[in-house]
Specification:
The complex is a heterodimer of chains A (97) and B (355).
Chain A lengths: L19 H34 L14 H19 L11
Helix pairs in contact in A: 1-2
Chain B lengths: L9 H38 L7 H7 L4 H19 L5 H7 L1 H8 L5 E2 L8 H4 L16 H9 L10 H13 L4 E5 L7 H7 L4 E6 L2 H10 L6 E5 L12 E7 L7 H14 E12 L4 H13 L5 H6 L2 H7 L4 E6 L18 E7 L3
The chains are: A mainly alpha (97), B alpha/beta (355).
Chain lengths: 97, 355
């Protein structure tokens, strides 16, 4: 089924719920779940490496305040995450549907 | 050990591990619940005097099902995310790692391209599998297709389906001249070349990027070559092959092209030669409904017409009288009725040209 909202043409996304709002919302939940997994994967790798080298006490990370290059890196990461989570909202595909 | 080492980026690999996990959950956890719901709805309909005999009847049962809506949504969007996520989707990530792509695609191999080949209109009209630009659209398309294939068949080991297909081929005889139609990136062609080391194996496909990957990856096999050609009219000499195969080709073709491909199959076979096309068949209205929907959700518009087609009649029209259509197990026990998870309803169509 094609969406009934004004996004038309070959790249209009299919919809499966009674309201396309739900389709797009589920898309955000799915993308967020992927983001969360990737983050947890990386965090586990990082913590493991740091603790093995005795570089940091992982229990102290909660108390840190990012600044400078680290702050910029986190901001860039945040922008990419927002793009990923929200990109389904426009109802357009990269492929022809 | 990590499930995937597709990319240099650990984050990208972790993303695709998540995609595979989601796809498996859909197939193994969600699908059996859908089947249970079907049985309940069918029973309720029967109590009201309504029988379920056709896929259209099944569609009526699911017309207001929330579970079915989520089933459809996940089938569509897990695949979409895999290909098109801007962050780690296959198209974006492979483009981000050009060194790997260049190294693999320029490795050589036996390949004859046809610069005059016209991509069929039906082929260019759809981005099948939701692959942006389709399987021929850019230099990386073969690599994208290959990576995507890793998560298509939940609970089936890598290459297992093609090894089972080779087992089936072996049961039909020994072959020395083999043609694999719609060979893609060579996933079906290479196991045939390995199984029949004395045979000359040729793979044909219309997609240049897929063929380049196929030829490069098979460059160390001396009995395999690839050629850019349309399966409907390959340009190869008549009666030169004793085995013609395809896997997952017919359902990507409109009906008239299926007819043309079967006629070309017969033309290419030597007298007594065997053809085995592997595709999807089901007589069960529930599975027909699931597969028709899959065709829509996965941008494969000719899947439903193929399943509706009278294949035995199509084969007879192409000049084959000796035709068997058999269920095919892509892994040990896959066709056992106790299996409740989602899988394609595979079937091998085995035909012999009169001697």
């Amino acid at each position: 089924m094609k969406s009934t909202d004004p996004v038309v043409g070959p790249q209009a996304e299919q919809t499966f719920f009674s309201d396309p709002t739900i389709d797009r919302l589920v898309g955000m939940v799915f993308a967020l779940s992927a983001e969360l997994h990737v983050l947890r994967d990386r965090l586990a790798l990082l913590e493991d490496a740091l603790e093995k080298r005795g570089v940091v006490d992982v229990s102290q990370i909660d108390k840190a305040i990012p600044e400078g290059a680290l702050e910029a890196r986190i901001a860039k990461e945040r922008t990419a995450l927002v793009q990923h989570v929200l990109e389904g909202l426009h109802g357009r595909l990269a492929s022809k549907s | 050990m990590a499930l995937l080492t597709l990319f240099r980026s650990r984050e990208a690999n972790a993303f695709h591990e998540f995609i595979m996990e989601a796809r498996t959950w859909w197939a193994v956890q969600l699908f059996p619940r859908l089947r249970e719901e079907y049985d309940v709805r069918k029973e309720l309909a029967a109590r009201e005097g309504r029988q379920v005999r056709t896929p259209e009847d099944v569609a009526m049962l699911f017309s207001r099902s929330t579970l079915y809506a989520y089933f459809c949504w996940l089938e569509r969007h897990v695949q979409k995310s895999k290909y098109s996520s801007s962050r780690w989707g296959l198209v974006a990530q492979i483009a981000r790692e050009p060194e790997t792509a260049v190294a693999r695609l320029q490795a050589g191999g036996q390949l004859e391209l046809d610069p005059k080949l016209r991509i069929p209109e039906y082929y260019a009209a759809h981005d099948i599998h939701q692959h942006p630009g389709n399987l021929h659209g850019d230099a990386n398309a073969g690599l994208v297709y290959e990576a995507s294939a890793l998560s298509i068949h939940p609970r089936t080991k890598r290459n297992e389906l093609h090894e089972k297909f080779v087992d089936l081929v072996r049961r039909e005889g020994e072959f020395e001249r083999v043609l694999d139609m719609g060979c893609g990136f060579g996933k079906s062609t290479v196991p045939l070349a390995l199984a029949f080391p004395r045979a000359k194996v040729v793979g044909v496909d219309v997609s240049e990027p897929c063929l380049k990957l196929a030829a490069a990856d098979a460059r160390n096999l001396s009995n395999i070559s690839f050629r850019q050609a349309d399966a409907r009219r390959t340009g190869l000499d008549a009666a030169k092959f004793d085995l013609v195969t395809s896997t997952m080709l017919l359902h990507e073709l409109p009906a008239e092209s299926v007819d043309a491909t079967l006629a070309e199959t017969r033309r290419l076979l030597a007298p007594g030669g065997v053809s085995i096309h592997l595709d999807f068949r089901t007589e069960d209205p529930f599975w027909q409904f699931i597969m028709y929907g899959h065709g829509v959700r996965n941008n494969e518009p000719f899947l439903e017409p193929l399943i509706r087609m009278d294949l035995a009649a199509a084969y007879r029209k192409a000049g084959f009288d000796d035709v068997r259509i058999e269920p095919f197990a892509e892994r040990e026990g896959a066709t056992d009725p106790s299996n409740s998870f989602w899988r394609f309803p595979w079937a091998a169509i085995i035909a012999r040209k009169p001697a």
